[in-house]
Design brief:
The protein contains ten helices and nine strands. The protein has about 325 residues and is an alpha/beta fold. A nine-stranded mixed sheet has the order 1-3-2-4-9-8-5-6-7, with helices on both faces. Strand 6 (about 180-185), helix 6 and strand 7 form a beta-alpha-beta unit.
Length: about 325
């Protein structure tokens, strides 16, 4: 195993559900036996919420990676034609900044090995670490970043947190300004100052109301991204960050900062499927799930279904 994976710890064995029925096999009975070398989709977790707490959010997101796994591994492999490997969780040793460095190194290795990556947060601050990996592997001008979130996460603060990742990526020139997409933001939750900051930069912004005004939730995003992919189809890659704050609290009650309005579950899954069907999508992450406030595992189950749809919607090998 690569040195890049030395700072990973295996998830609790209990998350790998076993049905013990040969006619009804579950992912928990398949994925643990899949070797990294033979996989095309890799899962890693980053079980920390220090960035959330720095941003005055409620603690609990550190529990999310394994809580999501518990639900994901209860699902069947129906429709999934790609082998999945679970590398475990990034080890938390030291500061949040050191954890981000560890995550970036792991993500870089996975991407260099030409595999697709699913990252489970933790707080949305991991978008900086994953975005940095995208920039270092593919080049700062060769990737699109899509932040599906009620918030912009471009706070102007000296200390990084769950509110700063996209400001960091922009200010450090790790992504082109016009290649960043802020999707499903809620006007009542975002600062006019940060709206103007993004507007002046030329960042693409689509509010939750704009998304919901179209026939399907992904239509606005597809039209915005289409021309860039037409002109750069071979070189341009994509990263999708799905922050569960974008989902209304009736569908996803277990988050760091819930809102009564937002995307419905079906609209959220529609965007996940869009990400999956883009051959150029290399990384998806799911963040800000807080199991301490979940109801009947509703939020972790939703992310598990989203992961399943991402895996099952991948283009078939050789197609």
């Amino acid at each position: 195993m690569s040195e890049s994976f030395q700072n990973l710890t295996q998830p609790n064995e209990k998350v790998f559900f076993k049905k013990n029925d040969r006619k009804d096999v579950r992912l928990g009975e398949i994925v643990p036996h899949t070797k990294y070398e033979e996989s095309s989709i890799v899962i890693i977790g980053c079980p920390q919420d220090e960035g959330v707490q720095r941003n005055n959010g409620r603690a609990g997101a550190a529990l999310a990676p394994d809580a999501i796994r518990e639900q994901f591994y209860r699902l069947t492999p129906f429709g999934i034609n790609h082998k999945i490997c679970d590398l475990g969780n990034v080890e938390l040793s030291g500061s949040l900044e050191e954890t981000h460095d560890n995550l970036t190194n792991v993500a870089k290795k996975v991407l260099e090995d030409k595999k697709k990556l699913i990252v489970l947060g933790g707080g949305n601050d991991i978008s900086y670490a994953d975005g940095k990996a995208m920039a270092e592997v593919f080049g700062a001008g060769n990737w699109l970043g899509v932040n599906v979130d009620a918030y912009f996460d471009v706070r102007d603060e000296a200390q990084r947190s769950s509110g700063t990742p996209y400001r960091q990526l922009l200010e450090e020139k790790l992504i082109r300004k016009d290649y960043l997409y802020e999707i499903a933001y809620q006007p009542q939750l975002v600062s006019p100052v940060y709206f103007r900051y993004l507007q002046n930069m030329g960042v693409n912004m689509v509010s939750v109301a704009q998304l919901r005004s179209r026939e399907t939730a992904d239509l606005e995003l597809r039209e915005l991204m289409r021309q860039k992919f037409i002109h750069h189809s071979q070189s341009l890659t994509a990263f999708f960050a799905f922050d569960l704050h974008a989902i209304r609290s009736s569908d996803a009650p277990g988050t760091s900062a819930p809102s009564p309005i937002g995307l419905r579950s079906g609209e959220f899954l529609n965007l996940v499927q869009f990400a999956a069907k883009l051959v150029n999508t290399k990384v998806v992450e799911f963040t800000e799930v807080n199991p301490n406030f979940d109801v009947d595992n509703r939020t972790t189950k939703l992310v598990a279904v989203a992961m399943h749809q991402f895996c099952s919607s991948q283009p078939k090998i050789g197609s």
